[in-house]
Known about the structure:
Elements: H1 4-13, H2 42-59, E1 63-66, E2 69-72, H3 78-99, H4 110-130, H5 134-155, H6 168-174
Bound molecules: heme C (HEC).
The site of heme C has 20 residues, from helix 2, helix 3, helix 4 and helix 5.
Amino acid sequence: MRALPFLIAAALVGAPPALAQTPAPAAPKPAAPGPQRTLLSVKEVMRHIVNPAAETYWAHSGEVDDEKGANDRVPTAQAEWNINIDTAAQIAEAGNLLMMDGRARDPSGPWMKYALALNAAGIAGMAAATAHDHDKTNDAGSAMYDACFQCHGRYIPRPKDSLYKHDIDKDLKAAGEKPK
Ligand code: HEC
């Protein structure tokens, strides 16, 4: 037992491991790296990645109605186009985050299709903003919106007595989708 105070002191001052007489407890192993290691839930991915990226993208594209009528929100500086390129890139890869094991709610159902639609819309948004093409930037923004809307309509359950009366089947039909 006489060695004990020395060991404790050595541990406190961080003595080189060669001095220790008993092996230090093994550090916890980090989780295996690799594509299946998810850290955030779907909800957190939505809240912290998908939603802020989409909101920022939409705020720098599309059309707004104000007292002067309908106005195109056309970026006027490269820095603004860059915001669209960056946020479209985030949307593009977020599609992959949603397809990972542990997040894909329905790996053989339409979930993957909606996630792929985010991939495609994000890539289209990057290309359009890189080319300073306002119309195509808007189209990509609409495609992002459709992916959000359709996936939410299918996978966020609403109680039967919900006050939210929106007819998702009608919208899906209008968008050329079969009602689910
Ligand atoms: C592949 C399916 C899918 C796509 C595509 C998708 N979402 Fe979601 N989203 C979900 C699911 C499922 C939830 C509910 C998560 C939960 O509550 O566990 C959700 C929840 C959310 C929430 C609520 C988060 C919270 O804090 O409760 C927001 C906001 C959101 N999504 C935004 C978006 C936007 C914006 C887009 C499109 C740019 C989008 N989502 C695309 C599946 C999707």
